[in-house]
């Protein structure tokens, strides 16, 4: 049984791009986002999320994020699957994706809306 | 004929298909990485390297779901052709030979010959295992690759879940999702079609020189003959 579990774990790590390797970077990006001001948060968004925010608020991303109730809490848990990640803050849920520039926030201000899905205040189209 | 040339000639079937396997797997890897890069660029993300793609769940599940169905095909083919026959098909044995046949016909136990594999004449569990070793190995490879498909498919499914801003699911949860069974059945059905087609087509069609075909001049009802 222990051997089976070890093989299963090894298999999952291999096919999920050795997720544990990326966990510290994911958690750091989430902490930076939660602790950052609006400018810092905008800089951590993926291009798609940034463009979506800019589209909604012609005054610019920082102005838009100032008005949104995004989380500022501690990281409670994180999961990484290949180049995608989910981080639960004490008061928010973030979705991150790996880009050539590092881990960036693809969605923030996410609240469960049933069946495991989330409605997010910030997300790319 | 030199030793190397003789080796290549006498093993050309396994070597040829081994080479084709490597070339086609490399082709899949390059094409798959290019496709994933296109998808990511459409989403405003960067391309993926070949190395990244080779360790991704996407590549793993695409490879494993095909391997498992091929091993299922061969394990079923090996086991089923003990009991199921097809009049006129070279893939079938003679109609009256249904079943595991006698020890004499199978050259086991006291009927083993000097050049028979040692476990064929050993008796007991060794002969019992060796007598089923082809089907058992294919069956074990099927189960292993199907399990690998479930793990790789689970990882790939969770990547999609996160991309669409949804919670990842557990492995057991994934086994109950349509995605796993869609991947499974879409591969299985094609293998059943291929085996069934071969069994029937080879009754009426010929391929001169192929052991998968009857001799060109063999009668359609002739069963079990290979040319």
TrEMBL record, chain A:
Question: What domain of life does the native source organism fall in?
Answer: Bacteria
Protein name per the record: Lipoprotein
TrEMBL record, chain B:
Q: Where are the transmembrane segments?
A: 134-157
Q: Which UniProt keywords apply?
A: Membrane, Transmembrane, Transmembrane helix
Q: Does the keyword Membrane apply?
A: yes
- Reading the lineage from the top rank, the first entry is Bacteria
A Pfam family annotated for this chain is DUF6766
The name this protein carries in UniProt is Uncharacterized protein
Its ancestry begins with:
Bacteria, Bacillati, Actinomycetota, Actinomycetes, Geodermatophilales
């Amino acid at each position: 049984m222990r051997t089976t579990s070890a093989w299963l774990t090894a298999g999952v790590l291999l096919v999920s791009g050795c997720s544990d390797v990326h966990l510290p970077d994911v958690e750091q990006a989430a902490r930076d986002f939660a602790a950052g001001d609006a400018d810092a948060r905008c800089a951590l968004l993926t291009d798609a999320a940034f463009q979506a925010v800019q589209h909604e608020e012609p005054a610019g991303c920082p102005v838009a994020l100032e008005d949104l109730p995004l989380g500022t809490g501690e990281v409670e848990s994180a999961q990484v699957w290949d180049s995608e990640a989910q981080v639960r803050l004490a008061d928010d849920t973030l979705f991150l994706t790996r880009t050539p520039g590092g881990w960036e926030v693809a969605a923030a201000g996410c609240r469960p809306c049933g069946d495991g899905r989330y409605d997010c205040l910030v997300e790319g189209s | 004929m030199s030793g190397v040339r003789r080796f290549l000639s006498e093993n050309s079937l396994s070597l040829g298909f081994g080479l084709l396997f490597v070339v086609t797997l490399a082709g899949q890897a390059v094409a798959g990485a290019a496709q994933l890069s296109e998808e990511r660029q459409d989403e405003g993300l960067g391309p993926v390297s070949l190395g990244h793609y080779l360790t991704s769940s996407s590549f793993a599940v695409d490879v494993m779901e095909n391997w498992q169905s091929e091993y299922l095909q061969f394990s079923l083919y090996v086991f089923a052709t003990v009991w199921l026959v097809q009049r006129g098909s070279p893939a079938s044995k003679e109609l009256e030979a249904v079943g595991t046949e006698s020890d004499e016909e199978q050259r086991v136990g006291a009927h083993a010959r000097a050049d028979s594999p040692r476990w064929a004449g050993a008796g007991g569990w060794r002969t019992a295992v060796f007598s089923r070793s082809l089907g058992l190995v294919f069956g074990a490879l099927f189960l292993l690759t199907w399990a690998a498909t479930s793990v790789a498919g689970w990882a790939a499914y969770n990547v999609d879940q996160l991309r669409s801003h949804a919670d990842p699911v557990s492995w057991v949860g994934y086994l109950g999702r349509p995605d796993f069974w869609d991947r499974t059945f879409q591969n299985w059905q094609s293998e059943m079609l291929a085996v069934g087609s071969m069994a029937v087509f080879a009754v009426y069609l010929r391929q001169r020189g192929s052991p998968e075909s009857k001799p060109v001049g063999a009668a359609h009802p002739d069963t079990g003959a290979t040319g």
